[in-house]
Amino acid sequence: MQTLFDSRMTMADFIAALFDKLEVAGVAAITKLPSGEKTAYTLLADKDDIEDCVPYFPAMPANAARAVSKLTREAPPSKQVAVFLRPCELRALTELVKIKQALLDNLFIISFDCAGVFPFQEISLSDEAKLKAYRDAVADGKNCEGIRPVCNACTRFVPEGADIAISFIGRGLDEPLALSFPSEKGKEAAKILGLDSSDNVETSPALETLAEARKKAEGELTKKIEETLAGTDGLISVFDKCISCHACSYACPICYCKNCYFDSQTFEYFPESYFARMGEKGALRLPVDRVLFHLGRLSHMSLSCVACGMCEDVCPVNIPVAQIFKTAGTRAQALFDYIPGKNPDEPLPLLTYAETELEEFED
Ligand code: SF4
Ligand code: SF4
Ligand code: SF4
User: Ligand 3 pocket, 245 CB below 6 A?
Assistant: First the structure.
């Protein structure tokens, strides 16, 4: 039997083995688009396309948890599908399962320690210099210059809850894959793939180095955002540029409502209502309820925010939405001692909240 490190298994070998030996019906992963420039999260049905499959490409064209939710929400796939998810996407998927927006049946989950991604608009397959710098950073366990601020400060970049985990940091993206098999399903798969699941992948010291750098960056990001948001004026001015397009909520894996409350009839006003508000204030910025939308979104989903950065990636006016949600979310989560996506069996705080909790905030 091959051990993990003499398997010499490349990513292409691994994906081929998923089709040939695990007999999956499809593989969902980041894939090169025919233009040769951009990538998309794609469900591949054919082994012939695996050369185009680049699961570790440092971009997030969509939050994969949202894609997997669409794939499984109505019913589980009839055959096993292998899905590649970054750690934050896997945590988002766990949250979606808790709110019955996704099913795990017949999913085979593969994840990897994640060195982060660049803003989607700023990375292409032909950006050789950037990609070389990224490869070097992965091998050295450093943050690569230019990755998104939330990635730079992401401290939960090692997957929890995958069937197979791949360890790249401190090893490199072009080395034979270092695989581990945390779940029973993963261990079964190891047998089928002819690999020894009892071998533990040695933790690279580079992981620890990166974790420390990120912890420091997280502290700096929190301080910066808390200063920016200080007082009501801070919050209003940070969202001054907001054009109310709501793209941040459409891209967010956790904002799952088919009909967003803020796009509902409740927020359709008659002219008299506008005149009344204009009269009270002397002027009324249109469209209305810009800041209320963000406050509402925060109150709806900040306990489950996994700080994936997707909302910030899509914001057309460069508001640091994900940094704000990460900072506010981390605070709210600490209050309930809750880490979104960590433990699939832990119920959402909103479901277990008791009236007697948080009485200190009542006055
Ligand atoms: S937030 Fe960034 S670094 Fe963290 S898991 Fe997601 S993509 Fe990777
Ligand atoms: S609010 Fe932003 S950072 Fe948080 S889960 Fe949604 S898209 Fe990701
Ligand atoms: S994506 Fe940006 S501009 Fe659009 S609603 Fe969200 S914060 Fe405002």
Answer: yes
Pairing of strands 39-44, 26-32: antiparallel
pLDDT at position 188: 95
> Does residue 3 form part of some domain?
no
Token pair of 14 as six digits: 């691994």
Mutation test residue for ligand 3: of 248, 250, 252, 294, the one with most atoms within 8 Å of CB: 248
Co-location of 201 and 232 in the same domain: no
Q: Is 308 in the pocket of ligand 1 (CB under 6 A)?
A: yes
Q: 26 lies in a domain?
A: yes
Residue 146 lies in a domain: yes
Summarised one tens digit per residue, pLDDT across range 29-63 is 999 999 889 999 999 998 888 888 999 999 999 99
252 close to 309: Cβ distance less than 8 angstroms: no
Report whether 95 contacts 306 (CB < 8 A).
yes
Count of the separate structural domains present in the chain = 2
Ligand 2 neighbourhood includes 162 CB (under 6 angstroms): no
Are 112 and 160 found together in one domain? yes
Q: Which numbered ligand comes closest to the C-alpha of 155?
A: 1
Eight-class DSSP state of 113: -
Range of the domain at 93: 11-206
pLDDT tens digit string along 275-326? 777 778 777 777 767 888 899 999 888 999 999 999 999 999 999 999 999 9
Same domain flag for 283 and 197:
no
CB atoms within 10 A of CB 147: 22
Which residue among 206, 228, 258 closes a domain? Answer: 206
**CB of 251 closer than 6 A to ligand 3?**
no
